[in-house]
Amino acid sequence: MKIQTITMRALVVAMAACGVIAGGVRAQDSQPEEKPKPAAKAYGPIGAENQDQNQSPDAMLPDNRPLTGIQDPTIGAPPEQHSYWVPGLSYYNFANSNGQTQGGGSGWNSTSYVSGNVSLLENFSRSQFMLNYSGGGDFSTDSAQGNGWFSQLGTSMVFNWERWQLTLLDQFAYLPQSQFGFGGGTGLSLPGIGGSLGSGSTGLGGGLNPGGSIFSSIGPRYTNSAGAQINYSITPRSSVTLGGVFGLLRFTESGNIESNNYTANAGYNYQISRQDTIGVVYRFNSFHYIGLPQALGDHTIQAAYSRKITGKLALQLTGGPEITEYRMPQLGSTKTQYISGAASANLSYAVAKGSVGLSYQHGVTAGSGVFVGATTDQVTGSANRSLTRVWSGGMHAGFSRNRNAETAPGLANPSFNSVFAGGSIGRPLGRNANFTLGYTAYLETTNNVGGYSFTTHQVSLGLSWHSRPLVLR
Asked: Where are the extended beta strands (E) located within 98-220?
C-alpha cells in the first residue's frame, strides 16, 4: 500500500508538471508563427482504434529525430493543425493456462483489466506536447497475482528553433509482470487510446527501458525513465546531439534485484542524401543496485546508419565495441574490465494495407531484476494487415536471452531465454469502438539455480471505446 501511494503521488506530480510546462509555453507563444513538424507517430497493435494504415505518404510530415539520439526513428506523421484530447475506456480479459509459477500445472486462470485511457496533443507555434495514459484495475483468479492496479504513462515535450531542438521525455509503468510481451497484441500493451488519434510515440529508444525482459521475476514492479536531449544543426546536413536518461526499476515483493540506470549520450549526424544519414555515437551507461555494493560502468562507441522514406520506411542500424567495468571483480576472478560488442537494428515499413516493425538489441543491460548486469539479446517484431473491409489481423513475437554479464572461470553462466508469439484479429464496432480476439504463447527456459521453466497459453478478448476528439483550440 505504501509503494502504491508513493507511485500514485509520483504519477500525479509528473502529469501536473507536464501541464505546467505546456501552460507556460502557451503563454509565451502569443505570436502566430510557422508550426513545427509534429513528432512522428507509430503504428500500434491490432485493436488500436481507427488505425489509418492507408495514409498517403505525400500527406505525411517527415520524422526529424536525430539518428544518434535517445529515440527510435519512425516513418513520419500526418500533419495535425488542431490541439485535442481523447478519453476512452477499455476492457481486456486474458485466459491463461498453467500460469507463470513454479511447477506450472494444467489449470486455467482468468485476469481482467479495466482501464481508463486518454491521449492529448497540444500544438504551439514552436513546440508540441504529447501525453498518453492508461490506468485501472486488474482482477485475477490466479492466487499468485490476485487483484491490483496498473498504470502506464508516456509524455514528451519538443521545442523547435531555427537550429536547435530540445526534447523532454518521461515514461512510467506500474504492471503486475514484465513489460516484455505484456498485453500480447492488444491495445493494453501501450498507454493511451492508440491508433491514428493517439498523440504519437512518446517513448525512449530500445536499450533505455529499465524494465527488463525476464518473465519470472517476482511480483508487480514499476519503472520510470526520464530523458532530455538537445540537437544542434551545424549545417543543413550535419548536427550534434547530447542527451541523458535516468531510469529506475523497483518491485513490490522481495527476492528481486532493484536498480538505477544513468545514461549519457553524445552523437554526430551527417545527411549524405535526402534519405540516408550516417553518424557516430558514444553512450555511457551506469548501473547501480539497491542494497548491493556492486556497480557497472558500460561504454560503447558505435557507427550508425539510417534510411528514411516518409510514409514508407524507417531503418536504423548501429554497431561498435563495448567496454564494461565492474566496481568489484566477480567471485573467483580478478578481472574488472571486459570488452565485447554492442549493436542494434530498427525497422518500420508501411505497405498499402498494413505495416511491419522489427527491433533488435545486443549489449549489457541492468539485469531485469534477476542478474547484477546481464548480456542481453532481444528481438521483437509485429505485422498488421487489413483482411477485409472491416476485419484486420496481426502477428506479434519476441525473443530475449539474458545471461549473467560475466562469470568467473570454471563456473556455469546462468541464463534465461524468454519467448512470446501469437496473433490477433480485430474489427471496429461503430465509429468509436473496437473488438479484438487473440492468442499468445509465453515460454521461458533457464539453467539458473532456483529458476524454473514454463509454457503459458493465453487467449485474449478485448473491447475498447473512445470519444470523438475534443478540440482544445
From this structure: 108-123, 127-140, 147-160, 164-175
Is the separation of the CB atoms in 248 and 227 below 8 Å?
no
CA distance 153 to 383: 24
Which residues does 11 contact at the CB level (< 8 Å), separation at least 6? 151, 153, 172
Give tens-digit pLDDT for 270-282. 999 999 999 999 9
Q: Worst-scoring range by mean pLDDT, 17-26, 201-210, 353-362, 420-429?
A: 17-26
3-class SS of residue 132:
strand
Cβ burial of 299 (10 Å; 0-12, 13-18, 19+) is middle
Helix (H) or strand (E) holding 90: strand 84-97
**Residue 47 Ramachandran class (φ > 0 left, ψ -120 to 50 alpha, else beta):** left
The per-residue DSSP string of 211-234 comes to T-S-TTS-S-EEEEEEEEEEEEES
The cell 501469437 sits on which residue?
422
Task: Judge contact between 447 and 435, C-beta under 8 A.
Answer: no
The C-alpha cell at 206 is: 530500445
Q: How many helices (H) and strands (E) does the chain have?
A: 1, 19
* pLDDT (tens digit per residue) in 302-341: 999 999 999 999 999 999 999 999 998 876 677 899 999 9
The answer for 106, left when phi > 0, alpha when psi is -120 to 50, beta otherwise, is: alpha
| 414, amino acid identity | P
C-alpha closest to that of 154 among 133, 185, 168, 184: 133
pLDDT band of residue 3 (cuts 50, 70, 90) is: very low
Which residue has 531510469 as its cell numbers?
Answer: 247
Rounded Cα gap, residues 46 and 443, in angstroms: 22
Cα dist. 195→41, 69, 162, 217 in Å? 9, 25, 31, 31
Report whether 175 contacts 117 (CB < 8 A).
Answer: no
Name the DSSP letter for residue 61.
B
Three-state DSSP class for 29? coil
Cell numbers 504519437 correspond to: 200
Closest-CA residue to 224 (of 303, 141, 154): 154
- Partners of 395 in the beta sheet? 383, 423
Give the whole-angstrom CA distance, residue 349 versus residue 227: 27
Ordered domains of the chain (ranges, CATH): 2-471 (2.40.160)
Average pLDDT, integer, range 156-167: 96
- The single-letter code of the amino acid at 239 is S
> How far is residue 447's CA from residue 457's CA, in Å, rounded to a whole number?
22
Which three-class secondary structure state does DSSP give residue 356?
Answer: strand
Closest to 131 in 3D by CA, of 175, 183, 170, 186: 170
DSSP symbol at 197: G
In the DSSP assignment, the letter for residue 275 is S
